[in-house]
Amino acid sequence: MGFQENVYIPPLLWGKSGHLQTALYGKLGRVSSPHPSGIRKYLPMQDGATSTFDLFEPVGDHRTGDDITMVICPGIGNHSEKHYIRTFVDYAQKDGYRCAVLNHLGALPNIELTSPRMFTYGCTWEFAAMVGYIKRAYPQTQLIVVGFSLGGNIVCKFLGENSVNQERVLCCVSVCQGYSALRAQETFLQWDQFRRFYNFLMADNMKKIILSHRHSLFGGSSVKTIDADYSRLYTATSLMQIDDNIMRKFHGHSSLKEYYEKESCVHYIHNVNVPLLLVNSADDPLVHDSLLAIPRTLAAKKSNVIFALTLHGGHLGFFEGEVLFPQPLTWMDKVIVGYANAMCQWEKQKPPCQSSHFSEGACQEEES
Protein backbone atom coordinates (compact mmCIF):
# COMPACT_ATOMS: atom_id res chain seq x y z
CA MET A 1 0.00 0.00 0.00
CA GLY A 2 3.01 2.30 0.03
CA PHE A 3 3.09 2.69 3.84
CA GLN A 4 6.79 2.46 4.59
CA GLU A 5 8.28 1.11 7.80
CA ASN A 6 8.84 3.94 10.25
CA VAL A 7 11.12 2.94 13.13
CA TYR A 8 10.66 4.85 16.37
CA ILE A 9 13.98 5.96 17.95
CA PRO A 10 13.38 7.67 21.33
CA PRO A 11 15.63 10.44 22.73
CA LEU A 12 18.85 8.93 24.10
CA LEU A 13 18.92 10.05 27.75
CA TRP A 14 15.28 9.75 28.80
CA GLY A 15 13.19 8.48 25.86
CA LYS A 16 13.23 4.84 26.96
CA SER A 17 11.28 5.67 30.12
CA GLY A 18 7.53 5.37 29.55
CA HIS A 19 6.96 7.39 32.73
CA LEU A 20 9.08 10.34 31.56
CA GLN A 21 7.45 10.25 28.11
CA THR A 22 3.99 10.18 29.71
CA ALA A 23 4.91 12.89 32.24
CA LEU A 24 6.25 15.18 29.50
CA TYR A 25 3.08 14.65 27.45
CA GLY A 26 0.92 15.25 30.55
CA LYS A 27 2.78 18.38 31.64
CA LEU A 28 3.67 20.05 28.34
CA GLY A 29 1.70 18.15 25.74
CA ARG A 30 4.24 19.14 23.11
CA VAL A 31 7.27 21.42 22.84
CA SER A 32 6.85 24.78 21.05
CA SER A 33 3.36 23.84 19.83
CA PRO A 34 1.93 25.98 17.01
CA HIS A 35 -1.37 27.87 17.02
CA PRO A 36 -3.44 26.74 14.03
CA SER A 37 -6.42 28.98 13.29
CA GLY A 38 -9.83 27.32 13.28
CA ILE A 39 -13.55 28.07 13.47
CA ARG A 40 -15.64 26.73 16.36
CA LYS A 41 -18.90 25.04 15.39
CA TYR A 42 -21.86 24.45 17.71
CA LEU A 43 -24.22 21.52 17.15
CA PRO A 44 -27.48 21.14 19.13
CA MET A 45 -28.09 17.55 20.24
CA GLN A 46 -31.48 15.86 20.65
CA ASP A 47 -31.23 15.74 24.46
CA GLY A 48 -30.55 19.48 24.72
CA ALA A 49 -26.77 19.18 24.91
CA THR A 50 -24.60 21.39 22.70
CA SER A 51 -21.66 19.68 21.04
CA THR A 52 -18.75 21.75 19.76
CA PHE A 53 -15.89 21.05 17.40
CA ASP A 54 -13.17 23.17 15.80
CA LEU A 55 -12.72 23.19 12.03
CA PHE A 56 -9.32 23.85 10.45
CA GLU A 57 -9.04 24.28 6.69
CA PRO A 58 -6.02 22.79 4.86
CA VAL A 59 -2.97 24.91 4.13
CA GLY A 60 -2.39 24.04 0.46
CA ASP A 61 -3.64 21.18 -1.69
CA HIS A 62 -3.52 17.50 -0.78
CA ARG A 63 -0.95 15.48 -2.73
CA THR A 64 -3.70 13.46 -4.44
CA GLY A 65 -5.66 16.58 -5.42
CA ASP A 66 -8.66 15.22 -3.51
CA ASP A 67 -10.68 16.77 -0.68
CA ILE A 68 -9.75 14.86 2.50
CA THR A 69 -10.91 15.64 6.04
CA MET A 70 -9.42 14.23 9.23
CA VAL A 71 -12.10 13.80 11.90
CA ILE A 72 -10.22 13.73 15.21
CA CYS A 73 -11.30 12.60 18.67
CA PRO A 74 -8.93 13.63 21.53
CA GLY A 75 -8.15 11.83 24.79
CA ILE A 76 -10.02 11.96 28.11
CA GLY A 77 -11.14 15.47 29.03
CA ASN A 78 -9.25 16.92 26.06
CA HIS A 79 -10.15 19.33 23.26
CA SER A 80 -8.78 21.23 20.26
CA GLU A 81 -6.75 23.64 22.40
CA LYS A 82 -4.47 20.94 23.86
CA HIS A 83 -0.86 21.21 22.69
CA TYR A 84 -0.59 17.71 21.24
CA ILE A 85 -3.77 18.29 19.21
CA ARG A 86 -2.55 21.68 17.96
CA THR A 87 0.78 20.17 16.90
CA PHE A 88 -0.90 17.35 15.01
CA VAL A 89 -3.48 19.60 13.33
CA ASP A 90 -0.81 22.04 12.16
CA TYR A 91 1.22 19.19 10.65
CA ALA A 92 -1.84 17.63 8.95
CA GLN A 93 -3.03 21.00 7.60
CA LYS A 94 0.32 21.58 5.93
CA ASP A 95 -0.03 18.21 4.21
CA GLY A 96 -3.34 19.26 2.69
CA TYR A 97 -5.84 17.86 5.20
CA ARG A 98 -8.88 19.66 6.55
CA CYS A 99 -9.16 18.84 10.28
CA ALA A 100 -12.26 18.66 12.45
CA VAL A 101 -11.48 18.22 16.16
CA LEU A 102 -14.17 17.22 18.64
CA ASN A 103 -14.23 19.10 21.94
CA HIS A 104 -15.41 16.54 24.48
CA LEU A 105 -18.67 17.60 26.10
CA GLY A 106 -17.73 19.56 29.23
CA ALA A 107 -13.97 19.60 28.52
CA LEU A 108 -13.68 23.24 27.42
CA PRO A 109 -13.59 25.43 30.55
CA ASN A 110 -15.30 28.41 28.86
CA ILE A 111 -18.22 26.47 27.32
CA GLU A 112 -21.22 25.85 29.59
CA LEU A 113 -23.15 22.58 29.40
CA THR A 114 -26.73 22.99 28.17
CA SER A 115 -28.00 19.65 29.53
CA PRO A 116 -27.23 17.45 32.57
CA ARG A 117 -24.75 15.29 30.62
CA MET A 118 -21.03 15.34 29.80
CA PHE A 119 -18.66 13.13 27.81
CA THR A 120 -18.25 9.49 28.83
CA TYR A 121 -15.82 6.69 27.99
CA GLY A 122 -17.66 5.44 24.92
CA CYS A 123 -20.54 7.75 24.01
CA THR A 124 -20.32 8.38 20.25
CA TRP A 125 -23.17 10.90 19.91
CA GLU A 126 -21.04 14.03 19.66
CA PHE A 127 -18.48 12.45 17.34
CA ALA A 128 -21.31 11.16 15.11
CA ALA A 129 -22.82 14.67 14.99
CA MET A 130 -19.47 16.16 13.92
CA VAL A 131 -18.95 13.53 11.21
CA GLY A 132 -22.51 14.07 9.98
CA TYR A 133 -21.91 17.81 9.73
CA ILE A 134 -18.68 17.30 7.74
CA LYS A 135 -20.38 14.88 5.32
CA ARG A 136 -23.22 17.35 4.68
CA ALA A 137 -21.04 20.47 4.48
CA TYR A 138 -18.43 18.85 2.21
CA PRO A 139 -20.28 16.29 0.03
CA GLN A 140 -17.10 15.49 -1.97
CA THR A 141 -14.80 15.00 0.99
CA GLN A 142 -13.48 11.64 2.14
CA LEU A 143 -12.63 10.96 5.78
CA ILE A 144 -9.60 9.90 7.77
CA VAL A 145 -10.74 8.96 11.30
CA VAL A 146 -8.23 9.57 14.12
CA GLY A 147 -8.60 8.83 17.84
CA PHE A 148 -6.17 9.41 20.71
CA SER A 149 -6.44 7.31 23.91
CA LEU A 150 -10.10 7.46 25.03
CA GLY A 151 -10.80 9.01 21.61
CA GLY A 152 -9.46 5.82 20.02
CA ASN A 153 -12.13 3.83 21.85
CA ILE A 154 -14.84 6.24 20.70
CA VAL A 155 -13.87 6.26 17.00
CA CYS A 156 -13.50 2.47 16.77
CA LYS A 157 -16.83 2.00 18.55
CA PHE A 158 -18.46 4.59 16.26
CA LEU A 159 -17.26 2.83 13.09
CA GLY A 160 -18.28 -0.60 14.39
CA GLU A 161 -21.73 0.40 15.63
CA ASN A 162 -23.17 0.74 12.11
CA SER A 163 -21.73 0.00 8.67
CA VAL A 164 -23.21 3.31 7.46
CA ASN A 165 -20.66 5.07 9.68
CA GLN A 166 -17.88 3.63 7.52
CA GLU A 167 -19.16 5.23 4.31
CA ARG A 168 -16.66 7.70 2.76
CA VAL A 169 -14.06 6.64 5.36
CA LEU A 170 -10.66 5.88 3.82
CA CYS A 171 -9.07 4.60 7.03
CA CYS A 172 -8.93 4.90 10.81
CA VAL A 173 -5.99 5.37 13.19
CA SER A 174 -6.22 4.72 16.94
CA VAL A 175 -3.31 5.62 19.24
CA CYS A 176 -2.78 4.41 22.84
CA GLN A 177 -6.27 3.19 23.65
CA GLY A 178 -7.05 0.31 26.04
CA TYR A 179 -9.89 -1.37 24.06
CA SER A 180 -11.82 -2.72 27.07
CA ALA A 181 -12.65 -0.67 30.17
CA LEU A 182 -13.88 -3.78 31.96
CA ARG A 183 -10.56 -5.59 31.51
CA ALA A 184 -8.61 -2.41 32.29
CA GLN A 185 -10.54 -1.89 35.54
CA GLU A 186 -8.53 -4.44 37.55
CA THR A 187 -5.17 -3.31 36.15
CA PHE A 188 -5.89 0.32 37.11
CA LEU A 189 -5.96 -0.66 40.78
CA GLN A 190 -2.52 -2.28 40.61
CA TRP A 191 0.67 -0.49 41.60
CA ASP A 192 3.01 -1.96 38.97
CA GLN A 193 4.03 0.75 36.49
CA PHE A 194 2.45 3.15 39.07
CA ARG A 195 -0.93 2.68 37.38
CA ARG A 196 -2.74 3.30 40.68
CA PHE A 197 -1.01 6.69 40.93
CA TYR A 198 -1.93 7.65 37.36
CA ASN A 199 -5.48 6.53 38.12
CA PHE A 200 -5.56 8.94 41.07
CA LEU A 201 -4.25 11.84 38.94
CA MET A 202 -6.83 11.25 36.20
CA ALA A 203 -9.59 10.91 38.78
CA ASP A 204 -8.55 14.24 40.28
CA ASN A 205 -8.74 15.89 36.85
CA MET A 206 -12.19 14.38 36.23
CA LYS A 207 -13.36 15.74 39.60
CA LYS A 208 -12.34 19.25 38.54
CA ILE A 209 -14.20 18.97 35.23
CA ILE A 210 -17.36 17.61 36.87
CA LEU A 211 -17.32 20.22 39.66
CA SER A 212 -16.84 23.04 37.14
CA HIS A 213 -20.22 22.03 35.67
CA ARG A 214 -21.95 21.08 38.93
CA HIS A 215 -24.90 23.44 38.43
CA SER A 216 -25.66 22.07 34.95
CA LEU A 217 -25.16 18.44 35.96
CA PHE A 218 -26.86 18.37 39.34
CA GLY A 219 -29.12 21.42 39.30
CA GLY A 220 -32.31 19.43 38.67
CA SER A 221 -31.67 16.82 41.38
CA SER A 222 -32.98 16.81 44.93
CA VAL A 223 -30.80 18.30 47.68
CA LYS A 224 -30.39 14.85 49.23
CA THR A 225 -29.20 13.34 45.92
CA ILE A 226 -26.82 16.25 45.27
CA ASP A 227 -25.28 15.94 48.75
CA ALA A 228 -24.79 12.19 48.27
CA ASP A 229 -23.23 12.65 44.82
CA TYR A 230 -20.93 15.42 46.07
CA SER A 231 -19.72 13.42 49.06
CA ARG A 232 -18.94 10.37 46.90
CA LEU A 233 -17.24 12.58 44.30
CA TYR A 234 -15.04 14.39 46.84
CA THR A 235 -13.88 11.13 48.46
CA ALA A 236 -13.25 9.29 45.16
CA THR A 237 -9.62 8.32 44.56
CA SER A 238 -10.05 6.37 41.33
CA LEU A 239 -11.75 6.75 37.95
CA MET A 240 -13.80 3.63 38.71
CA GLN A 241 -15.40 5.29 41.76
CA ILE A 242 -16.28 8.37 39.71
CA ASP A 243 -17.60 6.22 36.86
CA ASP A 244 -19.75 4.21 39.25
CA ASN A 245 -21.15 7.16 41.20
CA ILE A 246 -21.49 9.77 38.42
CA MET A 247 -20.59 8.83 34.84
CA ARG A 248 -22.62 5.64 34.30
CA LYS A 249 -25.80 7.46 35.36
CA PHE A 250 -25.65 9.88 32.41
CA HIS A 251 -26.78 7.02 30.15
CA GLY A 252 -28.83 5.07 32.69
CA HIS A 253 -26.50 2.09 33.13
CA SER A 254 -27.52 -0.02 36.11
CA SER A 255 -23.99 -1.02 37.12
CA LEU A 256 -20.35 -0.19 36.51
CA LYS A 257 -19.91 -3.53 34.72
CA GLU A 258 -22.75 -2.75 32.33
CA TYR A 259 -21.36 0.75 31.71
CA TYR A 260 -17.89 -0.57 30.85
CA GLU A 261 -19.30 -3.41 28.72
CA LYS A 262 -21.58 -1.16 26.68
CA GLU A 263 -19.07 1.67 26.19
CA SER A 264 -15.98 -0.36 25.19
CA CYS A 265 -15.04 -0.71 21.52
CA VAL A 266 -13.93 -4.34 22.02
CA HIS A 267 -17.51 -5.41 21.25
CA TYR A 268 -17.69 -3.37 18.02
CA ILE A 269 -14.20 -3.17 16.55
CA HIS A 270 -14.48 -6.51 14.70
CA ASN A 271 -17.18 -4.85 12.55
CA VAL A 272 -14.72 -2.26 11.21
CA ASN A 273 -13.84 -3.16 7.61
CA VAL A 274 -11.98 -0.03 6.48
CA PRO A 275 -8.16 -0.01 6.82
CA LEU A 276 -7.43 0.28 10.53
CA LEU A 277 -4.10 1.13 12.19
CA LEU A 278 -3.91 0.43 15.94
CA VAL A 279 -0.85 1.96 17.63
CA ASN A 280 0.26 1.17 21.18
CA SER A 281 3.47 1.42 23.20
CA ALA A 282 4.81 -1.49 25.27
CA ASP A 283 5.91 0.91 28.05
CA ASP A 284 2.61 2.81 28.24
CA PRO A 285 1.98 2.94 32.02
CA LEU A 286 -1.78 3.32 31.51
CA VAL A 287 -2.38 0.37 29.19
CA HIS A 288 -1.52 -3.02 30.70
CA ASP A 289 0.11 -5.59 28.42
CA SER A 290 -2.86 -7.97 28.86
CA LEU A 291 -5.11 -5.50 27.00
CA LEU A 292 -2.91 -5.70 23.91
CA ALA A 293 -4.14 -9.23 23.23
CA ILE A 294 -7.26 -7.56 21.78
CA PRO A 295 -5.58 -5.67 18.88
CA ARG A 296 -3.05 -8.49 18.41
CA THR A 297 -5.82 -11.06 17.91
CA LEU A 298 -7.85 -8.71 15.72
CA ALA A 299 -4.89 -8.01 13.41
CA ALA A 300 -4.24 -11.76 13.06
CA LYS A 301 -7.86 -12.36 12.00
CA LYS A 302 -8.59 -9.34 9.80
CA SER A 303 -6.48 -8.32 6.81
CA ASN A 304 -7.58 -4.67 7.04
CA VAL A 305 -6.03 -4.27 10.52
CA ILE A 306 -2.41 -3.38 11.34
CA PHE A 307 -1.30 -3.52 14.98
CA ALA A 308 1.85 -1.44 15.55
CA LEU A 309 3.51 -1.90 18.96
CA THR A 310 6.57 0.20 19.80
CA LEU A 311 8.98 -0.69 22.63
CA HIS A 312 8.95 2.90 23.89
CA GLY A 313 6.79 6.01 23.68
CA GLY A 314 4.79 6.01 26.91
CA HIS A 315 1.22 7.25 26.76
CA LEU A 316 0.84 9.63 23.80
CA GLY A 317 4.51 10.59 24.11
CA PHE A 318 6.53 9.22 21.18
CA PHE A 319 8.91 12.19 21.43
CA GLU A 320 11.93 12.33 19.13
CA GLY A 321 15.25 14.12 19.56
CA GLU A 322 18.90 13.14 19.59
CA VAL A 323 19.91 13.43 23.25
CA LEU A 324 18.14 15.74 25.70
CA PHE A 325 15.64 18.12 24.12
CA PRO A 326 12.61 16.73 22.27
CA GLN A 327 11.56 17.98 18.85
CA PRO A 328 8.18 19.75 18.45
CA LEU A 329 6.91 17.06 16.06
CA THR A 330 6.60 13.48 17.35
CA TRP A 331 6.86 10.06 15.74
CA MET A 332 3.13 9.65 16.35
CA ASP A 333 2.27 12.72 14.27
CA LYS A 334 4.43 11.54 11.38
CA VAL A 335 3.08 7.97 11.42
CA ILE A 336 -0.58 9.03 11.36
CA VAL A 337 -0.09 11.42 8.45
CA GLY A 338 2.20 8.93 6.66
CA TYR A 339 -0.41 6.16 6.95
CA ALA A 340 -3.18 8.54 5.84
CA ASN A 341 -1.11 9.57 2.80
CA ALA A 342 -0.54 5.94 1.86
CA MET A 343 -4.25 5.13 2.17
CA CYS A 344 -5.21 8.15 0.08
CA GLN A 345 -2.72 7.13 -2.61
CA TRP A 346 -3.98 3.53 -2.51
CA GLU A 347 -7.58 4.71 -2.85
CA LYS A 348 -6.58 6.88 -5.82
CA GLN A 349 -5.06 3.90 -7.65
CA LYS A 350 -8.05 1.58 -7.15
CA PRO A 351 -10.59 1.03 -9.97
CA PRO A 352 -13.39 3.65 -9.64
CA CYS A 353 -16.07 1.19 -8.55
CA GLN A 354 -13.91 -0.07 -5.66
CA SER A 355 -13.50 3.39 -4.15
CA SER A 356 -14.91 4.09 -0.68
CA HIS A 357 -17.49 6.57 -1.99
CA PHE A 358 -19.05 4.01 -4.36
CA SER A 359 -21.84 1.76 -3.13
CA GLU A 360 -21.92 -1.98 -3.82
CA GLY A 361 -24.88 -1.46 -6.14
CA ALA A 362 -22.92 1.08 -8.20
CA CYS A 363 -20.06 -1.44 -8.53
CA GLN A 364 -22.42 -4.14 -9.83
CA GLU A 365 -24.00 -1.65 -12.20
CA GLU A 366 -20.61 -0.63 -13.60
CA GLU A 367 -19.50 -4.25 -14.00
CA SER A 368 -22.64 -5.11 -15.97
TrEMBL record:
Q: Which GO terms describe its biological process?
A: acylglycerol catabolic process; medium-chain fatty acid biosynthetic process; medium-chain fatty acid catabolic process; sperm capacitation; steroid hormone receptor signaling pathway
Per the record, the domain of life is: Eukaryota
Q: Name the UniProt key words of this record, in alphabetical order.
A: Cell membrane, Glycoprotein, Hydrolase, Lipid degradation, Lipid metabolism, Membrane, Serine esterase, Signal-anchor, Transmembrane, Transmembrane helix
Q: Name any GO cellular component annotation.
A: sperm plasma membrane
The EC number(s) this enzyme carries: 3.1.1.23, 3.1.1.6, 3.1.1.79
Q: Tell me one GO molecular function of this protein.
A: monoacylglycerol lipase activity
Q: Which reactions appear under catalytic activity for this entry? A: 2-(5Z,8Z,11Z,14Z-eicosatetraenoyl)-glycerol + H2O = glycerol + (5Z,8Z,11Z,14Z)-eicosatetraenoate + H(+); hexadecanoate ester + H2O = an aliphatic alcohol + hexadecanoate + H(+); a triacylglycerol + H2O = a diacylglycerol + a fatty acid + H(+); Hydrolyzes glycerol monoesters of long-chain fatty acids
Query: Where do the catalytic residues lie?
Result: 149, 284, 315
The membrane topology term of the UniProt record is:
Single-pass type II membrane protein
Q: Where is the AB hydrolase-1 domain?
A: 69-321
Enumerate the Gene3D superfamilies for this protein. Answer: alpha/beta hydrolase (3.40.50.1820)
Pfam families, A to Z: Abhydrolase_1
Q: Where in the cell is it found?
A: Cell membrane
**Keyword Membrane: yes or no?**
yes
What the record says about family reads:
Belongs to the AB hydrolase superfamily. AB hydrolase 4 family.
**Function text:** Progesterone-dependent acylglycerol lipase that catalyzes hydrolysis of endocannabinoid arachidonoylglycerol (AG) from cell membrane. Acts as a progesterone receptor: progesterone-binding activates the acylglycerol lipase activity, mediating degradation of 1-arachidonoylglycerol (1AG) and 2-arachidonoylglycerol (2AG) to glycerol and arachidonic acid (AA). Also displays an ester hydrolase activity against acetyl ester, butanoate ester and hexadecanoate ester.
Protein name per its UniProtKB record: Monoacylglycerol lipase ABHD2
